[in-house]
Design goal:
The chain is α/β, with parallel strands linked by helices. The chain has 2 domains: about 180 residues, FAD/NAD(P)-binding domain (3-Layer(bba) Sandwich); about 150 residues, FAD/NAD(P)-binding domain (3-Layer(bba) Sandwich). The strands form 8 sheets. Strands 5-2-1-9-20 form a 5-stranded parallel beta sheet, covered by helices on one side. It has a 4-stranded parallel beta sheet with strand order 13-12-11-17. Strands 6-7-8 form a 3-stranded antiparallel beta sheet, with no helix packed on it. Helix 5 packs antiparallel against helix 6. The chain is globular. It starts with 11 loop residues before the first strand and ends in a 22-residue tail after the last helix.
């Protein structure tokens, strides 16, 4: 296999990753005179803020996914290639992938992050991550199949393992999945599983620090914790997970929680590439860039979004790993690439904080905007509107809206199917 991208007199921009930043950059380069090549290990864009709803059987995966080829249909000088990128050679202007090497004039790394297990092999093997649609589908299957097993299980110890759900990580994803599982326990499981004692279903949320939603305000953190405790979630703060063995989550306070549903959303690290030098990396494996998002020590390699480490006066420890950062960097980088070609002065990046949102459950959310912090029903409505507007495609917007309305009116999520592909198709890695 090979890229089979035609050679041209136009400068070639290769974008690695079609997340929020990469997708925005590719769209902004329309009609720019560049040949644009987007490379991604999936053939679709994932709307990650709603991935927890796929994991909890609230939405179908197709509702938050959109094929790249449909997004860029009939676009001249644009090429999508389904491949896994393994590394790049800045001195040779080539990027290495599972389908061969490709020359570039400008390379943009926008591959985001992967789950960080902090070197614990037992946790990595047993835990359920939630960074992709596929992982969300796996989680949905396991949550539902464990409930089915609990119905017929006669061993009381194993039965309790099947009915305990442990979520590690008190960021937005952890808070949101905890809330939706609590509502599932309250509104869905009693009807679907009348022969299960719902009072024995326990949802635990474990956070190593003293604050939930660490990137948000103390007001939002406190409100989210109050909401979760009121919904029956066992919130354990200042508690670290040391290990997972014998179907038990081992905590640093000596406690062990038996469970076969172990969800890990505790941290991320940047996607790694071959031939990136250690001095180009910062904490979490993030690639260091200058104020123009140019990778340290290079002239024509850039990084945007969660994968990059960029500082400015208001963010001395790097920008938060949020979609808005990636989107704004993508917009500015598109403009700067055009300026590079025209010999114009580049514009440095400055992040504009548009606010942060997190939903906890029905009529419950928290929102931070400048000096305004709100929570409850009003924040929940804002969350709904913002996320609905951000989803790609009219069809997807309608499907999500209908699902939300139906769920709100009936207290029921209706997509509780245990389904998995018999053969998983992936792009192969190629040694560089």
């Amino acid at each position: 296999m090979s890229f089979n991208v035609p050679e041209t007199d136009k400068k070639r921009v290769v974008i690695v990753g079609g997340g929020f930043g990469g997708l925005k950059l590719a769209n902004q380069l329309k009609g720019s005179g560049f040949q644009v090549v987007l490379v991604d290990k999936n053939n679709y864009h994932q709307f990650l803020p709603l991935i927890y709803q796929v994991a909890s059987a609230g939405l179908e995966p197709s509702s938050i996914s959109f094929p790249f080829r449909k997004i860029f249909r009939k676009r001249e000088d644009f090429y999508f290639r389904w491949a896994n990128v393994t590394g790049f050679r800045a001195e040779k202007n080539t990027v290495s992938t599972s389908i061969g090497k490709l020359r570039y004039d400008y390379l943009i790394l926008a591959a985001g992050t992967v789950t960080n297990y902090f070197g614990n092999a037992n946790i990595e093997e047993a835990a359920l991550p939630m960074k992709t649609v596929e992982e969300a589908m796996t989680m949905r299957n396991i949550v539902l199949s464990n409930l089915e097993k609990a119905v017929t299980c006669e061993d009381p110890v194993q039965k309790q393992e099947l009915m305990n759900i442990v979520i590690v990580g008190g960021g937005a994803t952890g808070v949101e999945i905890s809330g939706v599982l609590s509502e599932m326990k309250r509104f869905v499981i009693p009807g679907d599983y009348p022969d299960l004692d719902v009072s024995k279903i326990n949802v635990y949320l474990i956070e190593a620090s003293s604050k939930l939603l660490g990137a948000m305000s103390p007001h939002s953190s406190a409100s989210s914790e109050k909401f979760l405790r009121g919904m029956g979630i066992n919130v354990l703060m200042n508690t670290k997970v040391l290990d997972y063995k014998d179907n038990k989550v081992v905590l640093d306070n000596g406690q062990e929680i038996p469970t076969q549903t172990f969800i890990w959303v505790s941290g991320v690290r940047a996607t790694a590439f071959n031939h990136v030098k250690p001095e180009q990396l910062n904490r979490g494996g993030r690639i260091m860039v200058d104020e123009f998002n140019r990778v340290k020590g290079t002239e024509n390699v850039f990084a945007i979004g969660d994968i990059c480490y960029q500082t400015e006066k208001d963010y001395p420890n790097g920008h938060p790993q949020l979609a808005q950062v990636a989107i704004q960097q993508g917009v500015l980088l598109a403009s700067n690439l055009k300026k590079l070609e025209n010999g114009e002065k580049l514009e440095p990046f400055h992040y504009r904080n548009l606010g942060s949102l997190a939903t906890i459950g029905r009529n419950k959310a928290v929102a931070d905007f400048a000096n305004i912090n709100t929570h409850g029903w009003f924040a929940w409505i804002i969350w709904l509107v913002v996320h609905l507007r951000s989803i790609l495609g009219i069809r997807n917007k309608l499907v999500v809206l209908i699902n939300w309305v139906w769920s709100y009116l009936t207290y029921d999520n209706h997509i509780r199917l245990i389904m998995s592909a018999k053969k998983h198709i992936t792009v192969d890695d190629e040694e560089d």
